[in-house]
Amino acid sequence: MKKAKSKLKPFLRLYAIFLSLGLFSLLFYQKGQFELWVNSFHHPFFDLFFKSITPLGDGVIVILPLLILALFRYSHALSLLWASLIHLLLVNLGKQVLFKGFPRPAEYLKDIDFYQVPGVELHHWNSFPSGHTTTIFMLCAVLALVLPKRLRLQPTLFLLAFLVGFSRIYLMQHFWVDVLAGSALGVSSALLGHRLTLAFFSKKK
Fold this sequence. Notes:
The radius of gyration is 18 Å and the shape is globular. Helix content is 66%, strand content 0%. It is mainly alpha-helical. The chain has nine helices and no strands.
């Protein structure tokens, strides 16, 4: 398995810009205000779109691409497997140990009358980090890593990850800071998982 110095370059460039702007925005961020502002732009089309796309962040979504990658190249599947295990550990550590009980928008803003997307059950606790965002950024980052020659695909992967992450805010399931942290954990998991795979195959030589 050969190393490629710029495998994730297009995806990482976009993510670096996103993360930089996101971290800068935290200087002016007031918890709940941004989420209410996004909530004020609700529309039936956006309701349907974000309600339909948010399941792509479910953990079980990883199973299908894992099986497909395993059919074509074992090393690619191993990268995704490592990344999945790492992201699962990090998300559960955050939600169930370090930040257990952190209120979600529905609880934090319970005294404010905000719009609720029809058909969406709002959760109230264990807000940080966003698990859906972590999963989709991990998956898209791994795919960008193992498919380095698909340069046109990488911006699409980033856009997909961003939209799924944003859906968590639109649906009032998470705060902006939850999504930003989730994206960082997801990309970090992908990079670490891929590095572990490279180390594994280099030892076999």
